[in-house]
Amino acid sequence: MSSVGGEAAESAAPQASSEDGFIDVGAIGDFGDRSPTRVKLGSTEVVVLRWGEEVFAFSKRCPHQGGPLCKARAMESLISPQSGELDVEDDRRVIACPWHGWAFDLREGRAVLDARMGLRMYPVQVSSTGRVLIHPRRRKQGT
Amino acid sequence: MSGELAIGEYSGPIIDCSVHNEAAQLTDLFGYLSPQRREYAERWTDARGLEALLAPEYRPLSPIEDPDAQPGDGAPAAADPQRLSKALSGARIILNHGRLLSLSGLAHWELADALARAANDWLVERWLSADERFAGSIMVANQVPEQAAREIRRMAKEPRMVQVAMCANGIGHAFGHPLFDPIYEGAVECGLPVAIHAGAHGGVNPSPTGGGRVSFYIEHEVLSLQVLMTALASLIAGGALERFPELKIIFQGGGVAWVPGFLWRYEADYMGVHREIPWARHRPLEYFRSNIRVSTESLEYAAGDGQLINALADVGAEETLLYSSDYPRIRWRQAATEIAARFPAPWLAGIFCQNALTTFPRLTL
Fold first, then answer.
1. Measured in Å, how far apart are chain B's first and last C-alpha atoms?
2. Do the Cβ atoms of B342 and B1 come closer than 8 Å?
3. Does the first or last residue of chain B, that is N or C, have fewer Cβ atoms within 10 Å of its Cβ?
4. Yes or no, beta carbons of B243 and A82 under 8 Å apart
5. ipTM of the complex
6. How many angstroms separate the first and last alpha carbons of chain A?
7. pTM for this one?
8. Mutation test of the interface with chain A: which of B274, B276, B283, choosing the one with the most A Cβ atoms within 10 A?
C-alpha cells in the first residue's frame, strides 16, 4: 500500500481478500495517527482511522446530514464531574463530523448524544504482521 | 377555596399564575422599612422618583392597562384587593407584584433589598389577608444574590408565598451564571419555583435587546422575549439546572410561540458543540420539559393556530404551560377564553390547573 497520510487521503492499495472475507487495506504504519483516511472496499468506500494501536473503520458520511467523515476530528471524550470542571473520559474515543460537530463513539458507533443515530461500523483486524484487515459487511451497532 | 369554572370546553378549577397587584403609592412601602432606612428613603426619593428609577425606559410609554382595573382615585390599576378579587372571581390567584418587580434595576443594592423585604411584608399584610384565594410571590432584589437568598428563607416561613419572583437582572450576567446560585439554592431548599418575568428595562440592567437599545414601547413589548431566551440559554449552558436538578423556573411575560423555534435551534447547536459544556448532560428539550414552565401571557395571535399548536406540542406544551391572565393588562378578560378556544381540549386541564399544582408544591385548590 502506498502512503496514505493526510486527513482526506485515499487508499489506492491493491487489495487482497482473505478466506473469511476480510480485505487487506494496508500496513498499520501507513495510516497516520488519528488521521481519517478513505479506503475502497470493493464497491464500498469507508473511512479508516488509526488511534494508537487501535484501528476503526466506518461509513464515510455522517448519518446526521451527510458530512464527510474523512475530514472528521478524532478527539478524547470530555466529561464534567461537576459544572465548570472538565475531565477526559477514560477509554472512550470519539470523532466529530466537520459539518455540525455531531460526535460518535468509535467503539460503539453510536452518536454520543443520540443513541438512535449511529455510524455504520466495519469489523477490523490487525494481523500479527501489522496488516489492517477490514470486512466489507457492516458490523452490528454496539458490537 | 377555588370554585369550578366553565370556559369553552373546559370545566374545572383555574389557577391564575401571574397577576400584577400594585401599591397605590410606591411610597406606601416605606411604612414597612426600618426607621433608619425609611428616613433615608424619604429623603432620597418620592413616589414618582422611585417609579422613574424602577423603569425609566419603559413605564411612561406603556398604554396597556385595563382602565376598569383602576380604583379611580389616581392609584394605578390592580391596587385594590377587593376590586381585583371581584374581577378574577373563582380563580386561585398568584400575586406577582407590579412595578416593584423592577427593583433589581436599582443601582442602590442595599435599598433595593430593603424595599423587596418591605414589599413582601406588605404583600402578606395587605393582600394575603384580603382573600384566601390569593397566594404570594417572594420578590427578591438580585443585585446581591446572598441577600436575595436570605429573603427567600425569611419569607418562605409564610406558607402562602408560593414562588420566588425576579424580573430585572441586577448583576449583568445571564441568569444561569453561578453568581445566581444562592438564589436557586434557597428556592430549592424551600421548595419554591423561581419566576423570571420579561421586562424591567433600565436602571442598572443591560438593554433588553441584543441588537441595540430600542426607543418605543412596542419595541420593548415585542422584544421582551429576548430576555427569556437569554435566561433559558444560560440556565442550560451554565449548568444551573445540573447544579439544581429540582429547580423549577417559570418564564413569564414573553408569550409562548418563541419556545419551539428557540429549542429547535438550541437542540441543533447543542449536538454540535456539547463538548464546550459537557456538564450540561441533557439535551435542551429534556431540560425544558423537566425544569422549565412558561406562563401564557401574552399569548401570540396566529392566523393558523394549527401550526402554533403543532410546534408547541413538539416541546411538551401540554405539561409545561401555565395559565396566566396577566391582570390588569388590557387583554386579561380574553386570556382564558382565548386559551380554551385555541388550545386542544385535552391540554386545558393541565394549562388551567394541573401543571400549576405540580409546579407550585405549596399551592392547593
1. 6
2. no
3. N
4. yes
5. 0.72
6. 29
7. 0.89
8. B274
Task: Please list, in sequence order, all residues whose beta carbon lies within 8 angstroms of the beta carbon of residue B196, skipping any fewer than 6 positions away.
Answer: B166, B167, B175, B227, B228, B231, B249, B250, B251, B252
Core vs surface per residue B53-82: b (16+ CB within 10 A) or e:
bbbebbbeeeeebbeebbbeeeebbbbbbe
Interface contact B238, partner A, CB < 8 A: yes
Query: Which cell goes with A136?
Result: 466489507
Which amino acid appears at position A15 of this protein?
Answer: Q
**Residues written for chain A:** 143
Is A101 in contact with B242 (Cβ distance < 8 A)? no
Backbone angles phi, psi at B106, to 5 degrees: -75, 135
Q: Measured between beta carbons, which residues in chain A are less than 8 angstroms from residue B277?
A: 80
Phi, psi of B214 (to 5 degrees): -110, 165
Count how many pairs of residues, chain A against chain B, have C-beta atoms within 8 Å.
46
**pLDDT of B364:** 93
Tell me the pLDDT tens digit for each residue of A71-93.
999 999 998 988 888 899 888 99
- Point out which residues pair with B207 in neighbouring strands: none
Determine, for residues B278 and A101 on separate chains, whether the beta-carbon distance falls below 8 Å. no
Nearest to B76 by CA among B18, B122, B24, B21: B24
Q: How far is A11 from B44, CA to CA, in rounded Å?
A: 79
Residue keyed to cell 441533557: B282
Cα B267 from chain centroid (whole Å): 25
